[in-house]
Specification:
The protein is an alpha+beta fold. The protein is built from seven helices and 22 strands.
């Protein structure tokens, strides 16, 4: 295990970045990263930060913020703990760096230059409009590809244009600006938000579940909507409900614990119901019918961001995660009659009709509506996804 500092220095809307092109056998070769390096014996994170900045840039730090820690894993290399800092005040004369070229780049360029894919997640937190609290991010790479990421123990997903991460309190203003629009919530079955405090309450009580994600624009760090898996359940092969369970009480969403008897979690994380394991090998009930582990896909997107494929891109990432990482056998998705935008997204994703509930109670609005229920099976999900282009 090794510990390092990674420092981003800002001035007049620009960030000092290091293009790693000089050092031999450099795992960061060709990439643009912040400055920093390994701890020396006896150093604390702040001491390492100051020394590395001085050695690599010639600058002296006057003002900074300690932003978070990244647990970085890459193939057979030792696990690395990277301590992230944002420097907003400094003095001194910039010098030549032996490890690469130092350049002041506009903040908006950071996600469009060669970098580690997972960097997008912490850059969105460091350089977002809001100051996000101290965070812990885990990034796991294999053969240079990001295969797992989690923020504060919540899974994260990264697409071409988006970062899907957990909702944070600092997102309340952005959520309110989007959710106060009466064209958004009521179409999905919930009332428009009345104020920021209501949005904050919804974040804490509804949106902060293990598999609910904030949809964040990669280039602007702006939250624009929500997507996720909910209503985790065990069902028979016909789709009839056996039991719901609460993913918040489990080690991970794929190994959930029912709120009342009938479902247990083993020491190895395996979930068992009626003596049979769940997941890809769900087992059989006493009558021979198959037990399925499944969930429901839900989403909403702010009106200014509709019509350019963002929601479909976000949903595809969540579906891939659900079928591949969580081992779901089946994912459901619903929309209310008349919501053609949601219907178009589901058609685009490949969902197909299952049934219609003509008297669906919409409790948050005190209404009864007609709901169209669609479904997708694990075996229907392509193992290799084509790049998505579209305008849904």
């Amino acid at each position: 295990m090794r510990e390092t500092s990674l420092v981003y220095i800002v001035k007049d809307g620009k960030v000092l970045m290091l293009h790693r092109i000089r050092k031999k056998n450099d795992e960061n070769h060709g990439k643009w990263i912040g400055v920093g390096g390994k701890f020396e014996q006896g150093e604390c994170p702040e001491e390492c930060m100051r020394r590395e900045v001085r050695e690599e840039t010639g600058l002296y730090i006057d003002r900074y913020r300690y932003c978070g820690i990244v647990t970085f894993q890459n193939d057979d290399a030792d696990t690395e703990f990277m301590h992230l800092f944002l420097v907003t005040g400094f003095h001194g004369q910039l010098k030549r760096c032996d490890e690469g070229d130092l350049e002041w780049l506009p903040v908006e360029m950071l996600t469009n230059i060669p970098h580690w894919k997972g960097d997008r997640i912490f850059l969105s937190l460091i350089f977002g409009e809001k100051e996000y609290p101290f965070f812990s991010l885990k990034l796991v790479y294999k053969d240079g590809l990001l295969i797992h990421s989690s923020l504060n123990e919540h899974n994260c997903l990264v697409t071409d244009r988006l970062i899907l991460r957990p909702f944070l309190d600092a997102d309340a203003d952005a959520v309110y600006e989007l959710a106060k629009n009466p064209a958004i919530g009521p179409a999905a079955g919930w009332p428009a938000h009345k104020n920021r405090e209501e949005s904050l309450s919804v974040i804490r009580e509804v949106l902060r579940r293990p598999e609910i994600y904030a949809i964040v624009l990669r280039d602007t760090q702006q939250p624009v909507g929500a997507v996720g898996l909910q209503n985790f359940r065990i069902a028979d092969e016909e789709g009839s409900l056996i039991s719901y369970f609460d993913e918040r009480k489990s080690i991970c969403p794929a190994c959930c614990t029912k709120t009342e008897g009938g479902l247990t979690e083993e020491k190895d994380g395996t979930v068992r119901a009626s003596g049979k394991s769940l997941g890809e090998e769900a087992g059989q009930e006493a009558d021979g019918s198959e037990i399925r582990f499944e969930a429901e896909l839900g989403y909403w997107l702010g009106e200014p961001f509709q019509g350019n494929g963002l929601m479909t891109e976000a949903c595809r990432a969540v579906l891939e995660h659900g079928f591949t990482d969580l081992g779901l056998s089946r994912i459901w998705c619903c929309y209310f009659a008349g919501n053609e935008k949601s219907a178009a997204v589901q058609r685009r994703l490949g969902f197909h009709f299952h049934h219609t509930d003509e008297n669906k109670k919409v409790e948050l609005l005190g209404e009864v509506r007609e709901e169209i229920v669609n479904v997708m099976f694990q075996e229907e999900w392509p193992s290799v996804l084509d790049d998505f282009t579209g305008n849904v």
